[in-house]
Amino acid sequence: MIKDLLRSVGIGCLIAGGTLYAISNMPQAEDEDKSWKKGLTETKKELEVVKKELAISQTITLDETPGSDPDAEQVPDLENDKEKQPAAKEIETTAVTKKVTVKPGSNSSDLSSTLERAHIIEDAAKFDVYMKDYGYAGKIQIGTFELSSDMSFKEIAEVLTK
User: Fold this and answer.
1) Rounded CA gap, 123 and 114, in Å?
2) Are 160 and 127 contacting, i.e. CB atoms less than 8 angstroms apart?
3) Are the C-beta atoms of 102 and 142 separated by less than 8 Å?
């Protein structure tokens, strides 16, 4: 009878030890909460960085030159009147002049896309590559600059970096 009792106590101890070992190695809900909180904190930090970058990218603004209306100048006359067709060709070749304000934190790619939207340049990607290839990208100055669509990439870059 004592043998059976000791055997039962031994088996009970083994089962209890195995159960405790299994429970201690299982992922705790607290550990999962900690990992979620850590991920949430990292995501919030990334969100703050993105917000700052967005604010910087929005610092570049366009000011139209007083007295010029580039939209009106660029709309060709679509009438079939032969006398008005040469005027339409003149309108297409008229240079667009705008004032561009560069604020702190502006970078070359933001400035390139702004110039493209302002119809100063035709291809923002090409201008951005030009700025980087010729070392102008890191020299962009803060201020307001008057730029025209008939200026070359070099002329625009030199104005923006002086």
Assistant:
1) 11
2) no
3) yes
Indicate the number of domains in the chain: 2
Residues 40 and 89 occupy one common structural domain: no
CA distances 68 to 5, 64, 94, 96, 107, Å, are 104, 7, 12, 9, 27
- Three-state secondary structure string covering 8-50: HHHHHHHHHHHHHHHHHHCCCHHHHHHHHHHHHHHHHHHHHHH
Rounded CA-CA distance 154/65 in Å is 22
Predicted confidence pLDDT, tens digits, the chain (162 residues)? 888 888 999 999 999 999 988 887 776 666 667 778 888 888 899 888 888 877 766 665 444 444 444 444 444 444 444 444 444 444 455 788 889 888 888 888 888 988 998 889 999 999 999 999 999 988 899 999 999 989 999 999 999 988
In which domain, by residue range, is 50 found?
2-54
Amino acid at 124: A
